[in-house]
Specification:
An eight-stranded parallel beta sheet has the order 9-8-7-3-2-1-11-10. The protein has about 550 residues and is an alpha/beta fold. The protein has 16 helices and 19 strands. Helix 7 packs parallel to helix 8 and helix 13 packs parallel to helix 16. The structure holds beta-D-glucopyranose (BGC) and magnesium ion. Beta-D-glucopyranose binds next to loops.
Length: about 550
Amino acid sequence: MEPAIQGVTARRTVHRSPESRVAAPRSAASESDDWWRSAVFYQIYIRSFLDSDGDGVGDLGGIRDRLGYLALLGVDGLWITPFYPSPMADHGYDVADPRGVDPLFGDLATFDALIREAHEQGLRITVDLVPNHTSDQHAWFREALQSAPGSPARQRYYFRDGRGTEGSEPPNNWQSTFGGPAWTRVADGQWYLHLFAPEQPDLNWANPEVVTDFERTMRFWLDRGVDGFRLDVAHGLAKSADLPDMPDPEDAGGVMDEVEERDPRFDQDDVHELHRMIRRVLDSYPGRVAVGEVWVSDDERLARYVRPDELHLAFNFRLLEAGWDASQLRSAIDDSLAAMHSVGAPTTWVLANHDRPRHVTRYGDGELGRLRARAAALVQFALPGVAFVYNGDELGLPNVDLPDDALQDPVWERSGHTDRGRDGERVPLPWSGEKAPYDFTSGSRTWLPMPDSWADLTVEAELENPDSMLSLYRRVLDLRSKYANPPKDTLEWYGAPEGCLAFRRGNGLICALNASATDVPLPPGEVLLASGRLSGTDEARMLPPDTAVWLA
Ligand code: BGC
Ligand code: MG
């Protein structure tokens, strides 16, 4: 019988290497301090995971209610997106107080209970910190608005005089990643910088007060027992000193696009000194980890963020950006491993997050997209290093086409209704029942509408169905945990037919993927797990298109 998904009673049944399961010893450095090197992280977009108070918005109480489910799924740790007090102009990525909990999501007592209960289940908790900017409602920014140009309060942000007649033009040509200029003018005529929405003024990290305050924030959460941080826009903290114009503002990229070299807004060399500072703080808390969100297009530049004295991990978006194409996937894997090995850091593998369309949809949507997503999961979890799962991926959720009047992402307005933004990948998770809201909430409304077609995609339905995406995720994560996962492990490529790939890990695991349009012979070996039905005969088994296998 399947353990109940309700409540925290479900205990994991899978076997883990002991050092990765023990609740973090907080004193001396030990083997388990490296738990994150081959961990599977589950990203919780808090608004959309589970609502515990009937207001239609997911919250900390919802996460507490489903720790049993997460343990059963077989992940090692959680990344929880921002839950701090916020006016929600960017759904929590506009932080008004980084050391508190927004009443929409719960309170500090709930958070403390969540940490305690997660640790009891052997789950680590990492939280999202937003160092690049604050909310315009943060006490510092309000003070800055009330203070004179040039005052210390303004120097915590980027306030500048404008160009042109009476300074009526922005100080430079920088564009916001959400569309439109990256500058907004205030009453006395000065302008302030915001790489994202106007409600998200950029902090000036050249100001020591900003650094000190961030250290306070880190210690605040570390002292409460968090196992680490996801650092939002980790490549944006340092700006090019004189804020020079962008060489090509037309080429500003879309929301969360990778930035090209020489873009003065991001990936400045001075950022690394800041990450060394962050690492020094973390090193005084053994066993904690920081993963940076770094959107740079050059693998070698990405590797700089995870040199031994900088961040532990950085998101590697190469898999997420690759099309359904064996040679693209293979070079994503090769290049990423080579770059990370050059600095001795584990590679991370990301297929989806709250900023990019879900991969079921990217891979063609419908049955085809789901078939490919199943195969992609086998590839992702076979790779050495760290894997991130975005909530709902384990159910095979697709993106949702939402009506205009439901859209909430600031990108929709900022882009002048040319970019529909990221709401389509943020629709709440279906838990049980036949009709929306599928027990996501006890209320009748959800913050984004849920489709009527998700009855087969609920956690309840998928737990009972051995052919579901959820059953596949559980099996593959269970199997992964039984294989040693030395993170510095490389992989050896096998010859594979056109449109296919096959590799063997040092731990003996073989993974083969057929991304071509025809059946191909299965490589020799014992089949441990297949993402779909195999074809051929017992003597001559074949791997069908859009299918992957694990072999021993
Ligand atoms: C987050 C986005 C957010 C942006 C601004 C990103 O990296 O992932 O969701 O809108 O930072 O904070
Ligand atoms: Mg709620």
